Amino acid sequence: MDISNYVANFHFDEKYAAAFENADISTIDLLTLDISDLEKRTNRNKDELIQIVQQVFLLLRPKRKVASRISQSFLTTGDRILDQKLHGGIPVGQLTEICGESGSGKSQLCMQLCLMVQLPRAFGGLNKAAVFISTESGLETKRLFELAKYLPDRFPEAEESDVFIRNPGDRVYTILCPDLESQEHIIQYQLPILFERDSIGLVVLDSVAANYRAELRYNRSKSHYTDLNNIATRGNQLGKLASILRDLSRRHEAAVVIANQVSDRLTRDYGAIGLFSLDYQSQWFNGWDDLDPNPKIPSLGLVWTNNVNTRLALIKRTDNAAVKARRTLRVVYSPNAARIDVPVFIGSMGIFVPKEEKDALNPLL
Ligand SMILES: Nc1ncnc2c1ncn2[C@@H]1O[C@H](COP(=O)(O)OP(=O)(O)OP(=O)(O)O)[C@@H](O)[C@H]1O
To answer: What number is the ipTM of this complex?
Structure first.
């Protein structure tokens, strides 16, 4: 019987082990078959069988956790104020989505995190490696080296040698998956092996929607999938993807960051469609509402939204066209942090809160 696949050092009484073996009964059969079926197939006593089933059930039941005993750890973003607004940084053991339009800085932030995870814990890192899974153009190694050069500027209180990474690419595994089939294979089979072989503290998927759009005939202008039959398939695939990533992140103390694209949000006549319509209500979990200058909708819809623990949006600022590098990093929803807009800047050193904004956000620092 296959009980050793689930729990170590558990042995059935010999006569039962033989009966289960002869009747070809697996652990799953034991827990799911009707007791009279088990009785018939094994020719064993019903009461004793019930006792065995209960024993196995108790053994395999997920262990309950008490909220106060769950400790949450975070990976630094590399910016003290940003970490503070995120209530610690990027949560470990959970899925964090960064959504935003093209050029908003999603990949820049992901690359920045690939460096942060390599830093010692004293500086908010995890002293672990990163995996960068790219669905489009791959990791820009030149930019990764440039970002690494500026690490001492980010941590002025540190000794330079403590935050200096000589070869930042050495601890970043890069994987390119140009289609959905390879993406699924990599995440389901290759990623768990990498986790077993090395100490991984961050998985980046940049970006999640690209392969689903290509496979499922996405109608960009109407922001929906043309083939309705595929929606259920897509929902299953997304649920499975999120579940594998969440499981790996919990078991191996890693953060998972997923970049997601957006499409334009068209304002609707809510008087006609009603305030309980998804279109109206989704303003709060999509990240943009109708008052924003260029409202957007993150790709992949409600199923995906429900699978992500934290959603961050990078929004291009339109108030000061002269400063093209300005962005707003919005905490859309998070189990750890309140909804908030943090003004950020993208420069050679990566994404950071500029000095003048830092003073306004927290005059004590
Ligand atoms: N070396 C650099 N110095 C300063 N800013 C840079 C540098 N490299 C990139 N940027 C900024 O980052 C922006 C591009 O960001 P990024 O590639 O992360 O966008 P993205 O959101 O991932 O877009 P897409 O969805 O198209 O991949 C540029 O518009 C620029 O403002």
So the answer is: 0.98
CB atoms within 10 A of CB 199: 13
Pocket of ligand 1 contains residue 350 by CB under 6 Å: no
How many whole angstroms separate alpha carbon 310 and alpha carbon 230?
A: 26
The percentage of the chain sitting over the pLDDT mark of 70, rounded to a whole number, equals: 91
Q: Is the CB of 293 under 6 A from ligand 1?
A: no
Rounded Cα distance, 199 and 217, in Å: 38
Instruction: Select 70-140+166-361's CATH number: 1.20.1530.20, 3.40.50.300, 3.30.429.10, 2.60.120.10.
Output: 3.40.50.300
Query: For strand 200-206 and strand 129-134, is the pairing parallel, antiparallel, or unpaired?
Result: parallel
Give the C-alpha separation, 274 to 305, whole Å: 22
Greatest mean pLDDT range, 35-44, 58-67, 226-235, 270-279: 35-44
pLDDT at 1: 76
The Cα 152–Cα 162 span in angstroms is: 9
Give residue limits of the domains in the chain: 2-60, 70-140+166-361
Is 296's C-beta closer than 6 angstroms to any atom of ligand 1?
no
pLDDT, tens digit, 9 for 90 and up, residues 194-241: 999 999 999 999 988 888 866 555 555 655 555 666 777 888 899 999
Q: Name the least confident of 8-22, 242-256, 296-310.
A: 8-22
Q: How far apart are CA 19 and CA 44, in angstroms?
A: 8
Residue with the two structure tokens 């934290």? 310
User: Tens of pLDDT along 240-253?
Assistant: 999 999 999 999 99
Q: Of all atoms in ligand 1, which is nearest to the CA of residue 100?
A: 21
| 221 vs 86: CA distance, rounded Å | 33
Establish whether the linkage from the previous residue to 36 is cis, with ω within 30° of 0: no
With a 6 Å cutoff on the Cβ, whether 105 touches ligand 1 is: yes
CA pair distance 205, 215, nearest whole angstrom: 17
DSSP assignment letter at 64: P
